[in-house]
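Many introductory courses stop at the sequence. We go one step further.
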Amino acid sequence: MAETFGRGAMTNHWNDIANSDVIMAIGSNPAENHPAAFGHITKAKEKGAKLISVDPRFTRTSAKAEVYAPIRSGTDIAFISGMVKYVLDDIEKNPGSYNLTYIKEYTNSTYLINPDYKGPAELEGLFSGYAGSANEADNGKRKYDKSTWQFQTDADGIPMRDMTLKDPNCVYQLMKKHFNRYTPEKVNAICGTPVEDFLQVCSSFSYSGRKGKAGTILYAMGTTQHTYGTQNIRSYCILQLLLANIGIAGGGINAMRGESNVQGSTDHCLLFHILPGYLKVPDNTDTTLAKYLERTTPKNNDPKSLNWWQHTPKYVVSLLKAWYGKNATKDNDFGFHYLPKIESGQNYSHISLFEAMYQGVIKGLMVWGQNPAVGGPNANLERAAMDKLDWMVVTDIWQTETANFWKRPGADTANIKTEVFLLPARNSWEKEGSVTNSSRWSQWRYKAADGPGDAEDDLWMLDQLAKRLMKLYADEGGPSAGSLSDLDWNYGAGHPDVRAVAKEINGYDLTTGKLMDSFGGLKNDGTTSSGNWLYCNSYVEPDKEPDAPIPGNRASRRGLDDSPFNIGLYPGWAWCWPVNRRIIYNRASVDLDGNPWDAEHPVIKWNPAKGEKGGWDGDVPDGGAPPMNQGGYYPFIMKPEGLSRFFGPGMAEGPLPEHYEPWETPVDNVMSRQKSSPAFKIWRPDEQGTPDKYPIVCSTYRLCEHWQGGQMTRNMPWVIEAQPEPFCEMSEELAADRGIANGDKVIVESARGKVEVVAMVTKRFKPFQMNGRKVHQVGVIWHWGYTGLSTGDSANCLTPHVGDANTMIPEFKAFLVNVKKA
């Protein structure tokens, strides 16, 4: 989504789903995995909305859907590409039924691409510029030279456009050529979706492209956990832009996070490639702050583009001031030299880290509220990697499989030297602070109970650890000692003050000592601080937000006023980044004069009588500029060129989504000779399962009754009673073929390992009929491990160490297994 729109977050918010006319759940099962969110879907359905479920299984979501379409796991791109072809064809036949002004004015459909660009239709599944290696073990060479993917520009460096959409090198024509190959018959041959079901999905969802209508896509891990998960989402983005569904009420692409604070954790740089606020991480080529800013600050000469990331220097310097205070000065590059620098082009994702542990490179590991011994891919390997550590710290509320990796069945305990420190933690209701949900809403929570025994919260542990390390480095020195000893770390002498942390995240005007009102006031001269520029505006001076339960703390607000448009924005409830904007890209919800495309559900509306020069009513406008016809700017302010991208040259494996088979697949790629993605990361090529030994597609999934790695729910007797043990769900046809009855113990085996679980034989799985061939799929639950009140095998003993070419997220949703009666 960041490549297409500029940000990687949910475009709309939970309440807004109720404004949708049609909802497509693909790569997600909200009825089971996001049951509270499903309440908003129910509200939409009560207003007449249609729910579409696209899933390998007939799930609880499918049971509530008006339209259900089965799909073989790992084939989303082919399915959505067929939908894109359907819409493109329909635009040719019925142009008045679609918002062509949106497509021409708010997207890069008109951009001219380098005439040397060629796509998979011409190059047998590849894009021009592939300099890669056919050897899947040679990860360093599995990549593209993207020079032919670039926009043509004029003498000022501004992308050239063809507003007629007729030029053969314009994005729109290249899209038509690319997606024209994805016929309903090809979709059936790849996905196993019956043609009539597929066409029903197309007609139902394309209805949302009419002006005044809205459709949303809800996705989760079923979309992302693939070797081309990012391109799955790119295909959704292209479809939604063609239907003008971005920026409007009831529209968007809504990523459903599986934890209450997943969004908040990524906002604050949980991932290896970013700093807080999605600033780029420094690498070893950034020898000075100036070089870093030159590399990471995008430039654009188009006077109609706000190019918001041009403000990167202000946000970086303010971050360094928040971290290092008086030790960050102009003379020392504001302490930039303190920051660790990753090696340029290297990967530090989950799989890479565990492979490095297995090789003995990483000697210490801190595990905070995670359970990789259950939740990590190729779990047997990751457990063995922990054997090679010198030390490991585990912070959790229960004894987990990770804390007890050395007690796992079959472990050679005598030869494991890893020293394990287990720090008892507190649960979420035993501590105060904020969570940021999928909607980007930061909501303050209060401590409701004390923790048991010696349990402490994460903030206390981090504060103690930091203070002790700072003292050690100050007293004894050591490599990069200043990066710790020079920190501006002062959150109180006793338990650290969580509200002081929240204020530091917001930031200060260092010339007055007052909290910043907004990131618009941040500067690059060292006179402002902000621990995360996106959250600047969340905690202001008390007189700016006097009625909040905690004056000044906007996350603590609980206002129920929904004026002026009453579409579920509730701007006084909590606080939403950025600057309390509830629907991002909302300036695309209006025409060139500022009038809403959907008059019944306006997000913003230009009011010429507001102020001296006019202004916006409704949500906080994205960028604040006036309408386009009044000298305004393009609406997608986080992209350098200001327009959303159908054509995305920043992607690793191609500027347009192309179907490739999963790394392990029972079939050939019917689209081309290129079987799997040419750019995804493969760590262990010798562990690839083949269909002669492992003929069945397998996917992992979760249950409503259990939570993630199970350390919370498998220690609750009443939960275990509801769902006592792991199982493999399979079709009646496969069970009959293998002589398996419901309740039998079965062995599910892949090239990485095997598990013994209970067979659950249901009608929810059906064999896929693909171009005359039958393909079976099963699902295995991953919540279990070898500690707790209920024990069993984790499905992740089966999953491979392969990762998406852009994000390196592991492949959990499509791999090969064999199933037999135990």
